[in-house]
Amino acid sequence: MKRVKVSNNVIRRLPRYLRKLDELSESGVDKISSRQLAELLGLTSSQVRQDFNCFGEFGQQGYGYNVASLREQIAGILGMDRGFTAILVGVGNIGRALMENFCFSDWGVNLTAAFDIKPALIGTEYRGVRIYGMDELERYLAEHTVDVAVLTVPKTVAVSVTETLTNRGIDAIWNFTNVELTEPNSKTLVENIHFSDSLLSLSYFVAERRDEAAAKSAREEK
Amino acid sequence: MKRVKVSNNVIRRLPRYLRKLDELSESGVDKISSRQLAELLGLTSSQVRQDFNCFGEFGQQGYGYNVASLREQIAGILGMDRGFTAILVGVGNIGRALMENFCFSDWGVNLTAAFDIKPALIGTEYRGVRIYGMDELERYLAEHTVDVAVLTVPKTVAVSVTETLTNRGIDAIWNFTNVELTEPNSKTLVENIHFSDSLLSLSYFVAERRDEAAAKSAREEK
Prior knowledge:
The structure is a homodimer. Helix content of chain A is 46%, strand content 17%. The mean pLDDT of chain A is 90. The termini of chain A are far apart. Chain A is built from eight helices and nine strands. Chain A folds into two domains: 8-77, Arc Repressor Mutant, subunit A; 84-196, Rossmann fold, CATH 3.40.50. Chain A has helices at 8-26, 34-41, 45-53, 67-77, 93-101, 137-143, 155-167, 195-221; strands at residues 31-32, 65-66, 84-89, 109-116, 125-126, 129-133, 148-151, 172-175, 189-192. By secondary structure, the first copy, chain A, is an alpha/beta fold.
């Protein structure tokens, strides 16, 4: 695929379009205008059109988008048809939650193995995924193609495990450790899940609402 | 606090500033310019200054920001000093992961209770938080002030539990169920954690990198 540099904000909106299109598809909608799509996502229609224009022509002026084909195009841009493989490192609560509840294959990613240090887990399978010992990690990486490492180890070992992974050629880490791994080296892509950023945004909106209610009742008392 | 309407993008950046300022503080840095802060976060310095200007005067022209006081101001804007309380509904893998590894109090939120249907859990404490039966939820909400409900129940009951919560006056939900609860009603704030959006963004960047590498080697072969 020919690639043009696209802004981070556009890239971050693509998965949201995808989810919305999946929803529309499930509800039997097969065509949608940029205006309707924009409304459903709290965007403007010109923003929607501009986002898609980054990747070529997706719709027909005045005819709207075909939901199924737009979905396929976005899935392709997101790499969902590449057959990417992932391993999960650290089968604690969050690791188990992902293995149990997060359907990697829905997003085009094949979770092929998991790793942990607990002897009781090693050699078992969880949700169809084999759990190996951490001491088998390097050999596994030498023998298999792995596109993404899902990092769900305890904080204390996040940096050392990352070193092992990057030394063995892993160049994409999905980081759940809350340790900032941004740019462990220039070659590694790190996507951080920061629960706190999300909670604090919610906290902001709650505080804003409380302040507005307080201001309103102060005005009414006057 | 006087509130002006601030764009969603600015609000989403505030927690990132906060984390970075915490890091700087821990490394003994006590002053920083907007340019330095911008560089650390991959922003422009005018963007940083504009963001802070939304909330009043934070620094002194030419003197930079005091790290500790900027941190306190941002924490205040984010509502971290309001003593917000939260309950967690659903003590499965993801619920346990949050109770075990996510320090709510670090973000100014007091996790006061958890709820589940499993008899073995009810009446126990996990990490200092008491677990109640789901049938005790309504009474608990009637008797306690709860600002945020952390929703970590299985998908299948996400909507019905949300109804119970909102009927009982909960107006902020931190939603981990992957079910779209946006606007269950006009009064409820919902903050969704979408793991898939994050994974797909990473997938995009991996695909982009692979394409660039392929294009490069194609050019070299010519």
